[in-house]
Amino acid sequence: PLRYISKLRELVKHEAEKNKSQWKTMGPAKVAVPSPNDFLQKRSKEPRLAPKKKEEDGKKLLPLSVPPRTYHPVTRIKKNFISKNAIAVMTGEPKKPRHFCVDTRQGDKYLLEPSGLFPKYINKKNYGILPKYVTQRNEEMKREEEEYQASVLEQLKKKAMKVLSEEERTNILKALKKNWEELNHAYQGLPIVTDTRYKQMHKEELELKLKQLEHDIAAIEKHKSVYIANV
């Protein structure tokens, strides 16, 4: 079969040659040299205003919306300010005199209302009433204090000591005496000569246990009511 040839082959070849660097293999590109008449002139880079538009083809430009300086508006309404002010004075409410306080004999005075001597705030309806946010905060503090006290009492009840009954006390006393008898029997059965380290340690251990049991038995027999902490 014939070899496949793309339809865009010539276009791709043309694009490749078009984008190829001009001086890659054949030296620098031939660029047109600028003319000596196009030299940089003075003030050539400064911005310039656009030229004014002139009337073209007999068409007049639209007039500006701003009136000229010679324009004077026609005012036909005339007001009689004297009569107007007189009516306002006759119909208006008279000004209340301001309260002053004189504290020297030379006549030095100052306004009484901003001084704090004038009873201004005590005449209000809500004078002396606690604001809502204060009452709410007091209630919240009281509720938190009650919750804290309840939690403390609960913790104290949990950690409170329990009183042993008489029956439990006698049973514990009997068990301690029984243990003391067993340890005393074992102590009496020890050999007379303790020539080894093991025999000495065993004897000391039995003596310590007997001493502790005697102390516990004496403490329980001495005190009729025994308390045990709930740990």
Computed CA radius of gyration, to the nearest angstrom? 59 Å
Average pLDDT over all residues: 83
Please list the strands of the largest sheet in the order they lie side by side: 1-2
Low-confidence parts: none
Q: What is the structural class?
A: mainly alpha
What is the multimeric organization of the chains shown?
A: single chain
Span of the ends, CA to CA: 100 Å
DSSP helix count?
A: 5
Verbal overview:
- It is a single chain.
- This protein is mainly α.
- The protein has a domain of 67 residues.
- It contains five helices and four strands; from the N terminus they run ααββαβααβ.
- A hairpin with a 6-residue loop joins strand 1 and strand 2.
- Helix 4 runs antiparallel to helix 5.
- It is flat.
- The mean pLDDT is 83.
- It comes from Loxia curvirostra (Red crossbill).
- It is found in: Cell projection, Cilium; Cytoplasm, Cytoskeleton.
- One of its GO terms (cellular component) is acrosomal vesicle.
- One of its GO terms (molecular function) is calmodulin binding.
Topology:
Layout: H1 9-18, H2 81-91, E1 100-102, E2 109-111, H3 132-158, E3 161-163, H4 166-188, H5 197-222, E4 227-229
Antiparallel strand pairs: 1-2, 3-4
Task: Give a concise summary.
With 231 residues, the protein is mostly helical. It contains five helices and four strands. α4 (166-188) packs antiparallel against α5.
Entry keywords:
single chain; 231 residues; mainly alpha; two-stranded antiparallel ribbon; 42% helix; flat
